């Protein structure tokens, strides 16, 4: 090949021309083993001597007992829908509990169906685009902490052409509608409602002061003119998934923070060494996602404040019981496009946090604390001192957590945390198909991660140049449907550095495709879906799966309908559809009441004008689902 031709091809294209993959190879057989129910979910073949762990260790059921048992799902699965409302099974009902714009704090204006309310009132109302959510019981009160992930400019500034901000006030309105809300909720004859003006109600926005803690706090890369110490940031950005600590705090995860930054000069002024590479890897550029904050709020102008983007992309800890508390960005958990943070306590009491970086070809991470958690004892420093790891999945269905240290990466401790993606690349972590939520099974020592889809798989490398050819847990090129990988730590210890893995499900369309795109054996015409994203285990060990995918119901997605929530049995592999959302929405965020008789579910970016189908603006909302007989759900 001439050097000219090489220059015209991407690294992957050049590789494909020069080293074409064989028609069938050992890798295809790995995939076959990884997705076959017979070989895997039944636990008979794939794990060899580990079969006992798979077949009898989980939930105390042997493979044959699991097969013989009746379905654990207490409902009749529902079909797909393509309409503008929510559907739940027979014997269940739903209602809207809170919607964008609902007044929750003293002084808030009522919702304005023309423009959605003023900038000044936007931090006193239920915010926009609900996402991650957790429940807390405190002094006999029921609190919910809920993320407000992003703003829809055209919906939140409907008076402006394309919703483009024209003033500092427009920007302030968007900044105030996002972040986090803490609300007290209570139940009466009318079901669950937000307690308006409760002293616990609180909005945390793109402006709220938030401390930076952990090893990267105070580093020169986190210092700005407004905060020369580099220890107090303003705002939490793009709050996606969530987590909860056993000591009663909420974890909110900053995902696509890059989109809020822009530059007033092109190219931006010269920056510190290393910053440009970070901008490139994290997608920080002159225009962002067209929020135009930088034109009216200089903090978001990377020309003037090149370090401000380093102060976002973290996991933030919030005490939902104290509305005066300062939230804390925990830098020890790394900086990337955090989806959620699933916290489990290891055998020896150390705190383990599993986290995904939702970008095509990026990595999965784990934090293990140095200290141990002892109920009732102080927890200071537990999330500030420890080791960050990135996941490596081998094709033989084993894997290991690779420690990100100065020795393994050649980076300083602070650099590892601020530029975790580069640290992951340095150790050769496995490129993944957009890791979304991680959830751990409370009934078994195992965890699951939704890998939502990845059109770049096998097409081009990630932004760091890492190869993204198909690999064990990411077995399909241009992956349209997504899959859920699960791993079982060795020695039944979440702090162990090695694990076994399989695919719990590979989503697909068996009506349209016969190859790998048909999905795994536990996917059929009656339960198919695409793009698994939100996920949470209930206390009985069933896994609830929410989707954020293509709801066109056509072509490759024919028969899948609107985005939905399904429930899976980890032992049998059975998956059933429980709920469908209104057209255009994503179903994301899930929490239960303390008595588990009510389920809170988030509906993000609904289409049309749901839930008031006679209104003028669609309103992201949290709904409550209950059984008509008031029985326990999950
Ligand atoms: Fe905010 Fe990756 O979802
Ligand atoms: Ca998500
Ligand atoms: Ca998603
Ligand atoms: Ca979303």
TrEMBL record:
Protein's UniProt keywords contain Magnesium: no
UniProt keyword list: Membrane, Transmembrane, Transmembrane helix
Membrane-spanning segments: 39-63
InterPro entries from the UniProt entry: PhoX (IPR008557), TAT_signal (IPR006311)
Highest taxon in the source lineage: Bacteria
SUPFAM superfamilies given in the database record: Calcium-dependent phosphotriesterase (SSF63829)
PANTHER family associated with the record: DUF839 DOMAIN-CONTAINING PROTEIN, SLR8030 PROTEIN
Protein name as annotated: Transcriptional initiation protein Tat
Native source organism of the sequence: Pseudovibrio japonicus
């Amino acid at each position: 090949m001439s050097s000219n031709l090489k220059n015209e091809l991407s690294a992957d294209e050049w590789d494909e021309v020069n080293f074409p993959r064989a028609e069938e190879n050992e890798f295809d057989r790995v995939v076959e083993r990884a997705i076959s129910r017979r070989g895997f979910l039944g636990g008979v073949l794939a794990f060899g001597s580990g079969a006992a762990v798979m077949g009898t260790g989980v939930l105390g059921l042997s493979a044959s007992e699991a097969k013989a048992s009746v379905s654990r799902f207490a409902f009749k699965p529902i079909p797909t829908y393509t309409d503008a409302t929510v559907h739940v099974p027979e014997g269940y009902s739903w209602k809207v509990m809170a919607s964008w714009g609902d007044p929750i704090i003293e002084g808030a204006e009522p919702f304005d169906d023309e423009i959605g309310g003023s900038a000044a009132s936007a931090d006193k109302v239920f915010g926009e685009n609900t996402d991650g959510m957790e429940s807390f019981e405190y002094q006999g009160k029921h609190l919910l902490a809920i993320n407000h992930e992003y703003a829809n400019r055209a919906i939140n500034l409907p008076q402006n052409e394309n919703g483009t901000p024209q003033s500092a006030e427009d920007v302030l309105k968007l900044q105030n509608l996002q972040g986090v809300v803490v609300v007290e909720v209570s139940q009466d004859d009318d079901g669950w409602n937000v307690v308006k003006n409760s002293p616990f109600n609180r909005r945390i926005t793109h402006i709220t002061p938030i401390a930076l803690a952990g090893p990267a706090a105070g580093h020169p890369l986190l210092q700005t003119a407004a905060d020369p110490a580099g220890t107090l940031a303003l705002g939490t950005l793009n709050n996606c998934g969530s987590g909860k600590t056993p000591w009663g705090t909420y974890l909110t995860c900053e995902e696509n923070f890059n989109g809020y930054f822009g530059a007033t000069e092109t190219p931006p002024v010269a920056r510190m060494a290393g910053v440009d590479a970070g901008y490139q890897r994290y997608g920080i550029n002159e225009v962002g996602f067209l929020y135009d904050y930088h034109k009216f709020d200089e903090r978001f102008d990377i020309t003037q404040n090149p370090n401000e983007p380093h102060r976002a992309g973290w996991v933030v800890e919030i005490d939902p019981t104290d509305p005066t508390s300062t939230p804390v960005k925990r830098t020890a958990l790394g900086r990337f496009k955090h989806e959620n943070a699933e916290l489990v306590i290891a055998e020896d009491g150390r705190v383990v946090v599993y986290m995904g970086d939702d970008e095509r070809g990026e990595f999965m991470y784990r934090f293990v604390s140095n200290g141990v958690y002892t109920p009732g004892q102080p927890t200071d420093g537990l999330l500030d001192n420890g080791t960050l790891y990135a996941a490596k999945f081998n094709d033989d269905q084993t894997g290991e957590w690779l420690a990100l240290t100065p020795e393994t990466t050649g980076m300083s401790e602070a650099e590892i945390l601020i530029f975790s993606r580069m640290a992951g690349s340095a150790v050769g972590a496995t490129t993944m198909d957009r890791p979304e939520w991680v959830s751990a099974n409370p009934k078994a020592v195992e965890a699951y991660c939704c890998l939502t889809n990845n059109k770049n798989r096998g097409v081009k490398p990630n932004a760091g140049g890492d190869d993204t050819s198909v690999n064990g847990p990411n077995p399909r090129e241009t992956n349209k449907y997504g899959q859920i990988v699960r791993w079982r730590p060795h020695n039944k210890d979440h702090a162990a550095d090695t694990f076994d893995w399989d695919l719990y499900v590979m989503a697909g369309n068996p009506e349209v495709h016969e190859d790998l795109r048909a999905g795994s054996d536990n996917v059929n015409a009656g339960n198919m879906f695409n793009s698994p994203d939100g996920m949470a285990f209930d206390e009985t060990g069933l896994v609830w799966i929410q989707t954020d995918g293509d709801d066109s119901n056509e072509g490759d997605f024919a028969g899948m309908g609107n985005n939905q929530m399904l429930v899976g049995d980890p032992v049998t592999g059975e998956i059933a559809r429980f709920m469908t959302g209104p057209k255009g929405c994503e179903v994301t965020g899930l929490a239960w009441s303390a008595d588990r008789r009510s389920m809170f579910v988030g509906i993000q970016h609904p289409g049309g004008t749901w839930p008031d189908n006679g209104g003028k603006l669609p309103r992201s909302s949290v709904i409550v689902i209950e059984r008509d007989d008031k029985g326990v759900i999950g």
